[in-house]
Amino acid sequence: MADDTAATETGATAAVPSIDDAARGAKRKKLFRIFGIVLVTIAALWGLWYVLTQAGRVHTDNAYVGADSAVVTALIAGPVQEVRVAGTQAVKKGDILVILDDADAKIAVADAEAALRQARQRYGQAGANADAARARVTARGADVGQARARLRDADASVDRAQSELARRESLSGTGAVSGEELTAARAALQSARAARDLAAAGIAAAQATQGSASGDLGAAEALVRGTTIDTAPDIAAAQARLEKAQLDLARTVIRAPVDGIVTNKQVQVGQRIAAGAPIMTIVPIDTAYVDANYKESQFGKIRIGQPVELVSDYYGDDVVYRGKVVGIAGGTGAAFSLIPAQNATGNWVKVVQRLPVRIALDPQELKAHPLRVGLSMEATIDTRGN
């Protein structure tokens, strides 16, 4: 009886672990099913999120901030008298950056002003000469008239002398006219003829003088014909030289061409700079843009006008810029490098090329969070609209 009781207790003890193992197995299977359901749910939610928000978006972290920087150069040569800005300083368009010594420029302006006054005097003198030449032509015309009148008078005197001689010659046979009177009449005729020849020569001389005066008048009028004191060539040239001198004087003050930040300053007080030498660079950060280099395999749906989201390492993920694709480069960087790659070789290995995409940024966002040229960006283009 005791042995039967012991066997019963032993069997009951062995059955208890089997029941516990079965319970634990069922619990484990239930947990696996729940875990599987959770994974599937998460995967479905992630897939739905990706389809709704990320599908059709192309991303790159190979993007950098750029700007159309303005290189400030000296337009005239001269020593530096004053430098009013420092590197990293923000300036506005029109602010004075550098002042050059203007002593030589002021002398050049004074010389040009004197040359202009002299040109105006010469123009006035040319006008007066034309008036005087015109008066001389009129006077020579009067001389010609007088010479012609003297010729007519000489012709009349010749006619009278001829008549007197003819009358005396007709009376010489009657003894009414002496030989002396006849000789005197003949002499008078010769004198009258000589006076007539002299009067004719006087006309020729007067006409020649009139022609010379007309030539002087033409030369004098040629200097002023069709012009005014403001349009005469000499005066216009002198005015242009004065304006050039004034422009050079104004260029001794070098001003900022755009709003931006001063960088790469290369000028010091006392330094003599040459015309055309760069002295600093102004970076217009308010008009900065981003050049994002996308892989060629990503360009299937990239189009101009598509929206872009950008994040800068400078501000972190908290600041998101919203831009727009405004252009796609005409070639890869390798195609326009100084030494282009030579792919027609035996050891050629294909490398996925990248093509720059120009992205314009929102000016208001740039104003709120300014960027600097060369900063790294992450760009994501939304291609779902095209």
Descriptive notes:
Helix content is 50%, strand content 22%. By secondary structure, it is α+β, with helices and mostly antiparallel strands. The protein folds into three domains: 103 residues, Beta Barrel (Elongation Factor Tu (Ef-tu), domain 3), CATH 2.40.30; 63 residues, OB fold (Dihydrolipoamide Acetyltransferase, E2P), CATH 2.40.50; 143 residues, Helix Hairpins (Orthogonal Bundle), CATH 1.10.287. The strands form three sheets. Strands 1-10-13-12-11-14 form a six-stranded antiparallel beta barrel. A four-stranded antiparallel sheet has the order 2-9-7-4, with no helix packed on it. Strands 6-5-3-8 form a four-stranded antiparallel sheet, with no helix packed on it. A hairpin with a 3-residue loop joins strand 11 and strand 12. Helix 2 runs antiparallel to helix 4. It is rod-shaped, with a radius of gyration of 55 Å. The model has no long low-confidence stretch (mean pLDDT 80).
Helix and strand content put the structural class at alpha+beta
User: What is the number of domains?
Assistant: 3
Determine and state the CATH class of the largest domain: Mainly Alpha
Largest sheet: 6 strands, antiparallel, barrel
C-alpha geometry: rod-shaped
Strand content: 15-25%
Strand arrangement across the biggest beta sheet: 1-10-13-12-11-14
Q: Could you please say which CATH topology of the largest domain applies here?
A: Helix Hairpins
- The number of helical segments is 5
Q: What is the level-2 CATH architecture name of the largest domain? A: Orthogonal Bundle
Average pLDDT number: 80
Cα radius of gyration in angstroms: 55 Å
